[in-house]
């Protein structure tokens, strides 16, 4: 892979952002680190797959991502700075794990030793007990809080299900999936370590009581899912895996998987009506598609 770097001039902003792509795959719907949780996850996956099949072929051929958990927390301020696109200048590198624009997918793997700085436990309602997955990079965690608060004012109650997942957690998730479903299925439905966007600390899978706090494509049809689709970009998030785009993103429709890009970039991607990969390509970023 070639490294791409772009320099963004401040102020101007916005418009030109670049970034890296990330796709993810995470072990399919699993989540957690514990066995119990894993079992629950499998159920979810099954449900999801089933519904997916009903809804589209896309899902059949793509991986879905999402799983959950992680723990750490350090942090402090780097993310915030990066978040401000109108800074003097911002160098964006799709292969720089610390960049809000980092690309993490089957073509662009995150380093095994990469752990985001400034991980923070999110201050919003969560679903699972694993402390690791309740974390996000500070700037993303704060944006998530703002989004959840805004949603609540409109009687939209959201829950955070799975955020940061460490490389090691992904290793375990993949192994467990392979053990239960076979290597082939694991390759198809589970993200390999380093290939999950959740390792960036910039992702949160959200859900609602209307879908029993699960991660399912049905979420996209709920009032909560529709609110997220219409408003997430205003808080810096995009729905990373839109419906009908699995051939580009590599993942099935995941209305619950929100990737933080910062407000400016998220708005740009939203307005383009393109997937993140397509947006990057349109901006001249030389990235490889799955
Ligand atoms: Zn996810």
Automatic annotation (TrEMBL):
<dbReference type="InterPro" id="IPR052179">
    <property type="entry name" value="DD-CPase-like"/>
</dbReference>
<keyword id="KW-0121">Carboxypeptidase</keyword>
<protein>
    <submittedName>
        <fullName>D-alanyl-D-alanine carboxypeptidase</fullName>
    </submittedName>
</protein>
<feature type="compositionally biased region" description="Acidic residues">
    <location>
        <begin position="77"/>
        <end position="94"/>
    </location>
</feature>
<keyword id="KW-0732">Signal</keyword>
<dbReference type="InterPro" id="IPR003709">
    <property type="entry name" value="VanY-like_core_dom"/>
</dbReference>
<feature type="signal peptide">
    <location>
        <begin position="1"/>
        <end position="20"/>
    </location>
</feature>
<feature type="domain" description="D-alanyl-D-alanine carboxypeptidase-like core">
    <location>
        <begin position="135"/>
        <end position="263"/>
    </location>
</feature>
<dbReference type="InterPro" id="IPR058193">
    <property type="entry name" value="VanY/YodJ_core_dom"/>
</dbReference>
<dbReference type="GO" id="GO:0006508">
    <property type="term" value="P:proteolysis"/>
</dbReference>
<feature type="region of interest" description="Disordered">
    <location>
        <begin position="26"/>
        <end position="94"/>
    </location>
</feature>
<dbReference type="Pfam" id="PF02557">
    <property type="entry name" value="VanY"/>
</dbReference>
<dbReference type="InterPro" id="IPR009045">
    <property type="entry name" value="Zn_M74/Hedgehog-like"/>
</dbReference>
<keyword id="KW-0645">Protease</keyword>
<keyword id="KW-0378">Hydrolase</keyword>
<dbReference type="GO" id="GO:0004180">
    <property type="term" value="F:carboxypeptidase activity"/>
</dbReference>
């Amino acid at each position: 892979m070639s490294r791409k770097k772009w320099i963004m001039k401040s102020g101007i902003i916005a418009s030109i952002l670049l970034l890296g792509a990330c796709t993810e795959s995470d072990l399919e719907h699993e989540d957690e680190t514990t066995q119990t949780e894993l079992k629950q996850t499998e159920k979810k996956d099954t449900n999801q797959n089933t519904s997916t099949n009903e809804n589209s072929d896309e899902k059949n051929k793509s991986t879905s991502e999402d799983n959950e958990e992680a723990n750490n927390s350090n942090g402090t301020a780097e993310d915030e700075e990066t978040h401000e696109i109108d800074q003097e200048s911002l160098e964006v590198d799709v292969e720089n794990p610390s960049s809000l624009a980092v690309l993490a997918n089957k073509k662009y793997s995150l380093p095994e030793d990469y752990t985001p700085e400034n991980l923070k436990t999110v201050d919003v309602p969560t679903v699972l007990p694993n402390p690791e997955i309740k974390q996000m990079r500070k700037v993303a965690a704060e944006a998530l809080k703002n989004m959840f608060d805004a949603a609540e004012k409109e009687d939209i109650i959201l829950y955070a299900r799975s955020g940061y997942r460490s490389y090691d957690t992904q290793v375990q998730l993949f192994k467990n999936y392979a053990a239960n479903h076979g290597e082939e299925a694991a390759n198809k439905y589970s993200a390999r370590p380093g290939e999950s966007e959740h390792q960036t600390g910039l992702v949160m899978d959200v859900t609602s009581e209307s879908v029993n706090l699960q991660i399912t494509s049905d979420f996209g049809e709920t009032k909560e899912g529709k609110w997220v689709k219409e408003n997430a970009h205003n808080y810096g998030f995009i729905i990373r895996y839109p419906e009908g785009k699995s051939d580009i993103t590599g993942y099935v429709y995941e209305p619950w998987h929100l990737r933080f890009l910062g407000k400016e970039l998220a708005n740009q991607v939203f307005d383009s009506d393109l997937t993140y990969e397509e947006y990057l390509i349109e901006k001249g970023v030389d990235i490889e598609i799955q």
